[in-house]
Amino acid sequence: MKYKIELDSETKFVIRYSLSYRIEYIKKELAIAKQVNIDSSVKYWAGELEAVKNAVDILDSNSKPVW
Prior knowledge:
By secondary structure, the chain is mostly helical. It has two helices and no strands. It is elongated, with a radius of gyration of 14 Å.
């Protein structure tokens, strides 16, 4: 089920701020997984990074995103 939610600028800022910390955490975990050469972990963290970046893109590109 999809909902249309209108977010004010303050809420967007808080979400974007949280997502930026999540991206940094994922990048660190992805680097560790690559160093240790664990393919399943690399795939997992790469997928997580893509999902968070997509969320940021939706947040930035649309004032009324569908979540």
